[in-house]
TrEMBL record:
All copies of domain GRPD C-terminal, residue ranges: 468-592
Species the sequence originates in: Gossypium stocksii
PANTHER family: ENOLASE (DUF1399), GLYCINE-RICH DOMAIN-CONTAINING PROTEIN 1
Domain GRDP C2: 324-448
Domain of life: Eukaryota
Protein's UniProt name: Glycine-rich domain-containing protein-like
Entry-linked Pfam families: C2_GRDP (PF25334), GRDP-like (PF07173), GRDP_C (PF25335)
InterPro entries membership: GRDP-like (IPR009836), GRDP_C (IPR057518), GRDP_C2 (IPR057458)
Length: 677
């Protein structure tokens, strides 16, 4: 970063924002999570009713409250109304115009609490009941109840249905990622948001027309800021002297289209202005949301689940697995200097770990395209320890020019911004020992480490199935003991103990001893998968194929999906399901979520599935839905580095939202986060 670029960044950070954007973004993410638990708000009659209630009940109530306080405490907005209000505010110019037309002023969220709050609700309910005696404060989310709803004349012309549908996918891109709640990550995002506004300001000052597209971390902060409409108008007017419009209507990520071109230009402008990389780990487009299961908690009858029983984890201490953490890393090669004279041809860099881990166990390649406008980065996951080995290679002939290593622990411990960029001197190849050392400029960003899933391999021996961790350490061995009247699953632990872990019941289910798990087939659900329940308060179904978080959405239907089964838990927290385990029936690899209490039950379930896999497929009757592949952690490494290298010409790495700005266009921005194909 040159001195002029440093001054630009320092100037950007002087931008005054009157909202605590880190704390507010965390509340924003909690709200999006709660809305996603009520997905009937995304479409259909529930959405129609919510819009009606927002226009005719919530806005008038809010108008009275902002004109003259009608409560000693804050108003608490109903969830359905808050969702529509949320989407309306994300078009700040239109929201301001609508409020001023109907109420003579902007209706702010000052002294208003979110529906996710558990306090102050009673007073709001009482006022609501007095003002609207025939309309309940809480919306009944049952679509059956609302089928006969007729939408009356509208008080706002803005198409709120379309606004909601544009914002609905945002949860998957933002709230579902745990690093988005990290203070360091969010602090960096706020600083980058200020840089984004400063870039737009410079474009306006220079009458430069452009379409600026944010990465997803910037877009998340931008959304949060807009949820405070009065503060947003004041802050942006103070910085830019005009209101910055947020346009989320463009979602075409095709190469050379507006979104793609805008993101490429924004990237170049950012890096020229500030001298640092625009792309960041954990802030890029993650693809489409996984396919829905077509099943939710309300559709599961309670015949097979005892809601009153408390889960037991008595088998949890039977096995011991080392807890691992994982982080995402993005690397860009920003320059090479002091190459030997006479060296011709293209260069590339290989990246590996000195001691490979389960996530990064082979070399990843990235080309160095110094003479083209195309920008590339490589994204991968690994444990936050050990050393990355970077090799500079030539294509013709293929040979190593030099090598360097980077301590991951040193990066994680010392880089508070989750980003660094510096020159590294390479240890030269012996044939180049007399030459001046080659230097490579490497920019790397990473997400805060999180707990990784457990990875278990099943190895079949003569009598036992041995389950090992990724380092081939024994966890437990299981075998089936077959009596004339019943069967038992016998476990032999690594410390020598023998346990009867499960027994087949007369109802053709399996009880797990010392716990409340009870696996069984539920015929009513065979069209969607094979159900197994648990005699307690958890509901789990085993689906054929890769589902939800284990689905790989690359647009290709993989035939090998038929070798996978996904265990999905349904709960109040995850009413539409959370994938908790994946079984690869071909390689006998099991991936289990980070919840330790699931390890033993999922190992036993996998054993039962592997033992009777042919019966499982007959039960499914090939009616299950497809999924995806897993072997080494989060996703299999594509062959030859495919889909690992991300290019600026791959369809746009920026958001479904950006900013048309410059000359006479005013302040028009488009949002949706970064595009990453």
């Amino acid at each position: 970063m040159e001195r002029g670029q440093e001054l630009e960044w320092e100037e950007a950070q002087k931008l005054a924002i009157s909202v605590d954007l880190v704390a507010s973004t965390k509340e924003h993410l909690r709200f999006l999570t709660e809305v996603d638990r009520n997905q009937t708000l995304y479409d259909g009659p529930v959405l129609d009713r919510a819009i009606y209630r927002y226009k005719h009940y919530w806005l008038p109530l809010l108008g009275k409250h902002t004109e003259s306080t009608i409560l000693e405490g804050p108003l608490v907005v109903p969830l359905d109304c808050e969702w529509i209000w949320h989407c309306h505010r994300l078009n700040p110019v239109r929201y301001k115009a609508d409020c001023e037309e109907l109420y003579g002023r902007i209706l702010d969220n000052k002294n208003v609490m979110s529906a996710i709050s558990t306090t102050c609700r009673r007073q709001t309910e009482e006022i609501w009941k007095r003002m609207y005696p025939y309309e309940p404060y809480e919306l009944n989310m049952s679509s059956q109840f609302l089928k006969n709803f007729v939408n009356y004349s509208r008080s706002i012309e803005y198409d709120l249905v379309s606004a909601v549908k544009r914002q609905s996918p945002f949860f998957y891109q933002q709230a579902s990622e745990s690093h988005m709640n990290d203070d360091v990550f969010l602090g960096g995002a706020v600083a980058r948001y200020k840089g984004f506004l400063h870039l737009i300001k410079r474009n306006w000052e220079n009458s430069k027309r452009c379409f600026c597209v944010p990465t997803y971390d910037i877009d998340l902060i931008w959304h949060t800021h807009q949820l405070y409409p009065v503060s947003y108008c004041k802050d942006v007017m103070g910085a830019l002297e005009k209101i910055l419009e947020h346009d989320d209507t463009d979602s075409d990520r095709t190469k050379s289209k507006k979104l793609d071109t805008g993101f490429s230009r924004t990237t170049k402008q950012w890096e020229d202005m500030f001298g640092c990389r625009y792309w960041r780990a954990g802030a890029m487009y993650g693809g489409q949301a996984p396919s829905p299961l077509g099943l939710n908690l309300s559709q599961l009858d309670n015949q097979w689940w005892d809601e009153k029983m408390v889960p037991s984890n008595e088998n949890q201490d039977m096995v011991s697995l080392h807890r691992k953490t994982v982080m995402e890393i993005m690397i860009e090669i920003d320059g090479v200097k002091d190459l030997p004279q006479g060296l011709k041809g293209s260069l590339f860099v290989t990246i590996n770990k000195k001691q490979p881990d389960i996530f990064l166990n082979n070399k990843r390649n990235i080309s160095i395209l110094c003479n083209t406008k195309e920008k590339q980065a490589i994204v991968f996951q690994c444990e936050p320890k050990g050393d990355l080995v970077i090799e500079l290679m030539s294509y013709s002939p293929i040979k190593t020019l030099g090598t360097t290593s980077i301590s991951l622990k040193g990066i994680v411990d010392s880089v508070s911004r989750l980003y660094a960029e510096e020159w590294f001197d390479l240890v030269p190849n012996l044939t180049l020992a007399d030459s001046k050392p080659i230097s490579v400029r490497i920019a790397f960003s990473f997400t805060p480490p999180i707990l990784a899933h457990y990875m278990v391999q099943m190895v079949r021996h003569f009598k036992y199935h041995c389950f090992t961790d990724e380092a081939s350490n024994d966890i437990i061995s299981l075998h089936m003991r077959d009596y004339q009247t019943r069967k038992e699953v016998i476990g032999l632990t690594s410390c020598g103990g023998t346990h009867v872990l499960a027994a087949e019941s007369a109802e053709k289910g399996w009880f797990l001893n010392n716990s409340h798990w009870w696996f069984h087939v539920h015929n009513k659900l065979n069209e969607n998968g094979i159900a197994f329940g648990f005699k307690g308060n958890r509901k789990v179904i085993l689906f054929r194929g890769r589902k939800l978080g284990f689905e790989i959405n690359d647009g290709k239907k993989l035939k090998i999906d038929e070798h996978f089964m996904t265990a999905v838990e349904f709960s109040m927290e995850y009413p539409y399901g959370k994938a908790i385990a994946l079984f690869n029936l071909k390689s006998a690899i099991i991936e289990i979520s980070e919840e330790e209490s699931l390890v033993v039950p999922m190992i036993i379930l996998a054993f039962l599935v592997f033992e009777s896999s042919s019966n499982c497929w007959k039960s499914c009757n090939n009616k299950g839905k497809g999924g995806e592949v897993i072997t080494n952690g989060i996703k299999d490494s594509p062959p030859d580095g495919e889909d690992e290298v991300k290019s600026s010409n791959c369809g746009g790495c920026g958001g479904g939202c950006g900013v048309s700005c410059g000359g006479s266009c005013g302040g028009h921005c488009t949002s949706g986060g970064s595009y990453w194909n």
